[in-house]
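From the shared-data thread, chain only:
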Amino acid sequence: MAGLFVSFEGTEGSGKTSVIKEVVAHFQKQGKQVVVTREPGGSRISEKIRTIILDKSHTEMDARCEALLFAASRRQHLVETINPALQLGKLVLCDRFVDSSLVYQGIARGLGFDEVLEINKYAIEDTFPNLTIFVNVRPEVGLARVFASNLREVNRLDLEQLNFHQRIYDGYLELIQLFPHRIKNVVGERSIKEVVQDVILLIEQAWATHE
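Structure, as tokens:
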């Protein structure tokens, strides 16, 4: 049986990376084979593209260039990391996937939802996650976390104005309406224990349906 592909989405500072760590520990204790990966990145070539995308000095980067770089990174990531793991029946937990491009470049950058979706359909060949967890944290709360933390490097996207991050947040809420069966809204402004419990339950339900 093919594995289960779960992506995690959220605004900057939503805490999804911390949630993923706890979820991994839970399923590994259950004996499941878990692959944890991220975007942009997740493979050797994709990580190099990540460096270009997030470099704070690349302020002149064109929005379409940004969208194409994300899609290129995603393609290599899918071929090298995600698909092989799914073919082996593993649980793949990915920190961001295609929905990030739809809201960051399609909506927040104003390139158009349909246009960015088409670019990414070419890149992923319709390989969407079985389940997407949106860790719902308001942008002003998430950004305050980012700039208060010494453990996370501030990148080029973090430095955008608050209205950019608000458009991202609103974009995710739109996606939940468009893909209600795939994208699940988890309230993130709670203790990490409560958030993790909800996420584990959603993944277990997805596994049961998948099997």
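The beta strands are 4-9, 34-38, 91-95, 131-136, 183-187.
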